[in-house]
Amino acid sequence: MRILAIETSCDETAAAVVEDGRRVLSSVIYSQIEEHRQYGGVVPEIASRRHTEQIIPVTVAALEQAGLALPEVDAVAVTYAPGLIGALLVGVGFAKGLALSARKPLIPVHHIRGHVAANYLAHQLLEPPFLCLVASGGHSHIVEVCGYTDFHTIGKTRDDAAGEAFDKVARVLGLGYPGGVAMDMAGQGGDASRYPLPRPKVTGSPYDFSFSGLKTAVINLAHNALQKGETLSVPDLAASFGQTMAELLCQRFFDAADHLGHKTLACAGGVAANSRLRALLETGAGERGCALYLPPLSLCGDNAAMIGAQGYYEYRAGSVADLDLNAVASKPI
To answer: Which of 316, 318, 333, 248 shows the shortest CA–CA distance to 22?
Structure first.
């Protein structure tokens, strides 16, 4: 089954063709990073306008790359939730038009489910059940993947997402946007023990995250140094923040894995590209004798291939939308 997938949840306009949920026939992404960089983050109105401009050429390119015409695909999948509402509406509206005109089934896909499914494209043998850490710009979840369309949230952030915290700290340190990549690069070779940082816990919820205090601690360090005329070591502070963030994510994740007895683990989302997080995950999984699946860097960020992969399993489970499908800004997995 060949699925044409559309992804416009944030600032990447993406289209892809995926076969049987496991094979990428094409994947095209138009990134808006350079435009949003001057503002230090995504401007929703600009993102929506660029999606409107790019959605047709990106989709045409994905079909051409796959060597297919629209009538030759079997269904259209689209991210409908969660994300920036204006951005989502562009993709959903476009996908509904495509499905209607081509007389193809319309498959609604949850963005976080798509991130989890990115691993299916890279690891042909991976199948549920497994435990997955999803860490991105807007989400930080520990998800029990009981089946391809059966998910149970074990823990999640109570405030900032991991990627959001990276972006805000990077902005204060003058490292630019996107913050996760900039912080990871700046911290290479830095002393991760130089700046002790808080490790917040959520009382009564051992698998939930809270990154607001960690972010604020770094911001206060930077502001206090500026007021006193002192100079902070950006490489050391970036390394300290990155290491603390990775340890917090891994501690909760492995605690959940130990408690639930999972021996198959995965990670997904933009923050899954972080070098410190990947290293700690590999070490922790090895110590526990667990199988660990990490997506390649090309599938960590937002892309339509992951939506096509999950779309295949949603279709098999009978999830097909009518033309009254609407975008939803916030929705549990």
So the answer is: 316
